[in-house]
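[Discussion] Sanity-checking designs against the backbone

I'm trying to build intuition for which residues belong where. Below is a structure token string of 153 positions. I'd appreciate it if someone posts a full sequence so I can compare it with mine line by line.
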């Protein structure tokens, strides 16, 4: 995980430098190896799936227990999920297992009985440089860079 974070930090710093010099962000993308791009894509998609699966499992448990289930539609920092929503702490805990203290940013739409429109996205940065999604995860790094956090692809 430390290796991944170091690589991402290097990519961010390079992007900032190139942007300040007037170059496009695609120049920074070209500096990443295919292996790094694949690793970043897999991480983003896995974290999006983790968020979706956590929401799905906790919702199913509440329904089975006869408890009420409130919808969750949120885009922003994981740390700022609504404290009073039953899914907030489970989502934070699930991401903490894989992300440590840097939980990133998510967009989630989870409405009971509207399975076709439900989704989760995850990005390491607020700008959503690379966005993972579940279901229907992007299959390539380039597709993941074209997703806007909060807009289902």
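Best answer:
Here's mine. Compare freely.
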């Amino acid at each position: 995980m430390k290796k991944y974070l170091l690589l991402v930090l290097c990519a961010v710093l390079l992007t900032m430098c190139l942007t300040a010099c007037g170059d496009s962000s695609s120049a920074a993308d070209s500096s990443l190896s295919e292996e790094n791009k694949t690793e970043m894509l897999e991480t983003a998609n896995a974290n999006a799936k983790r968020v979706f699966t956590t929401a799905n499992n906790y919702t199913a448990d509440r329904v089975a227990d006869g408890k009420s289930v409130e919808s969750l539609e949120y885009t922003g920092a994981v740390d700022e999920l609504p404290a009073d929503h039953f899914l907030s702490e489970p989502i934070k805990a699930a991401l903490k297992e894989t992300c440590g203290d840097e939980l990133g940013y998510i967009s989630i739409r989870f409405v009971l009985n509207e399975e076709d429109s439900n989704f989760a996205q995850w990005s390491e940065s607020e700008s959503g440089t690379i966005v993972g999604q579940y279901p229907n995860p992007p299959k390539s790094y380039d597709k993941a860079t074209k997703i806007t956090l909060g807009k289902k692809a």
